[in-house]
Design goal:
The protein is built from 17 helices and no strands. The protein is an all-alpha fold. Helix 4 runs antiparallel to helix 5 and helix 10 packs antiparallel against helix 14. The chain is globular and about 55 Å long. 58% of the residues are buried.
Length: 425
């Protein structure tokens, strides 16, 4: 028996919960450190990079999922770790204001827990999807769950933005606590009984983690796709830590306004993903390579316009939404390729492959986010604030252009997008 659409939707709720918690850590708390606490941009950049760096353990979680039937346990335990880290990170904000080093130590611990929680829960969830979903439904399942994650991010950011104003530390802790408890409760209900009801392929023979990873790395397609994920995700995540501070420092947005803008951006991501799914499935337009390339080039164009907004009358929020739209186009095509490739190669190794690509994405996200934050801090020493952010956005745009060129060489053009992003068959 394989996962039906109802069960896939339930697992998508877990992905939605992951996004709901993480968006507060990577967007709202980041802005509070930079604007309200007047800390260097590189500090939240380091913390978010830490949470991504800890996710280098994703292949371990995927390998453990491959070796035995423990996915539900790891999904719930990971969400609990993520929630504990989220509460700790929020608690560190008022501590940073009064006792910096104590607050920093608490933040480091909290963000490490966030990284472990995302790695354990997210990788085990994707492994269950890859192994329990029928081959013809894998791309559609990936698209559904990814859209639900984006929906969770957008809805949480918009709702949190409304409740955070007028801002206070007490209000922040209350908002984060509600999100964390809701996410953990929904996760437990969503995964209950699914793993027992699905008969997946037999587990592979026992082996050491190192041997299993070497086995996957020997597959050319898995290896090359890992390199593509790293390059493209570095470009994708460079703006994550600097967009809200840019809105606050250059355009005078309040915490609630910048958080709402972040939610609107993720709403654009959702629309971009949905548009690709509808066009590729309903009208059979384009290929995965074409959608990835268009998404990267469109993102580069939007970043150029966002850079110019600081010195022109271009409106920031519509440009940020457009950036999210093209980011979504790129992401959904990349995820479609990932889920399709996860079922290829040696059998019963979906978890290890997803873990490998997840680790590559996490390292790239941490590196990209930290590089963007550090570059802004460096440029602000020699340039006005608006120009410092603008040059950083232009640099990110060049990375997206480079990623588009790599995509044209790495992703095969022969198969139409419909074969990869089927969503109703």
């Amino acid at each position: 028996m394989t996962l039906n659409w109802y069960q896939i939707f339930r697992l998508g709720l877990v992905q939605m919960c992951l996004g709901a918690i993480v968006v507060l850590m990577t967007s709202t708390l980041n802005r509070l450190m930079v604007v309200e606490l007047a800390l260097p941009v590189v500090l939240p950049g380091f913390l978010v990079a830490l949470h991504y760096g800890v996710q280098i353990t994703r292949p371990n979680w995927g390998f453990l999922s491959d070796q035995g039937g423990s996915r539900t346990r790891w999904i719930i335990a990971g969400m609990a770790l993520l929630g504990a880290g989220g509460l700790g990170a929020a608690l560190a904000i008022p501590v940073l204001e009064t006792a910096f080093w104590t607050g920093l130590a608490l933040s480091v611990l909290a963000y490490a827990l966030i990284g472990l929680g995302v790695g354990a829960s997210g990788t085990s969830l994707l492994a269950l999807l890859a192994m329990g979903t029928a081959p013809r439904r894998r791309p559609a399942a990936a698209t559904i769950t990814w859209l639900m994650m984006i929906a969770g991010i957008a809805l949480t950011a918009i709702a949190a933005g409304q409740f955070l104003d007028p801002y206070s530390h007490t209000r922040l802790l209350a908002v984060v606590a509600v999100v964390v408890l809701s996410a953990l409760s929904l996760t437990i209900l969503a995964v209950r009984g699914i793993e027992r009801a699905v008969v997946c392929r037999p587990a592979p023979p026992p082996m050491r983690f190192r041997d299993g990873l070497v086995e996957i790395w020997a597959e050319p397609r898995a290896r090359h796709f890992t390199l593509f994920v790293f390059l493209s995700m570095t470009a994708y995540f460079m703006q994550e830590l600097i967009m809200e501070p840019y809105a606050g420092l250059v355009f005078g947005f309040t915490p609630g306004q910048s958080t709402t803008m972040s939610g609107a951006q993720n709403g654009g991501v959702f629309l971009g993903m949905l548009a690709v799914g509808l066009l590729a499935t309903g009208l059979r337009l384009g290929s995965l390579r074409g959608w990835v390339t268009a998404g990267c080039l469109g993102s580069a164009l939007c970043l150029g316009a966002i850079a110019l907004a600081a010195v022109t009358t271009l409106p920031l929020v519509p440009l940020v939404i457009a950036l999210g739209f093209f980011n979504g186009m790129f992401a959904v095509a990349a995820i479609g390729s990932m889920m399709q490739l996860a079922g290829e190669g040696r059998a019963a190794r979906e978890g290890t492959r997803m873990g490998l690509w997840g680790a590559s994405q996490a390292v790239a996200a941490g590196f990209g986010g930290l590089a963007g934050a550090a570059l802004v801090d460096l440029l602000r020493t020699v340039l006005p604030t608006g120009q410092a952010f603008g040059v950083t956005f232009l640099f990110e745009a060049t990375l997206f252009i480079g990623a588009a060129l790599v995509a044209m060489r790495v992703i095969a053009p022969a198969r139409p997008a419909r074969a990869q992003l089927v969503a109703g068959e």
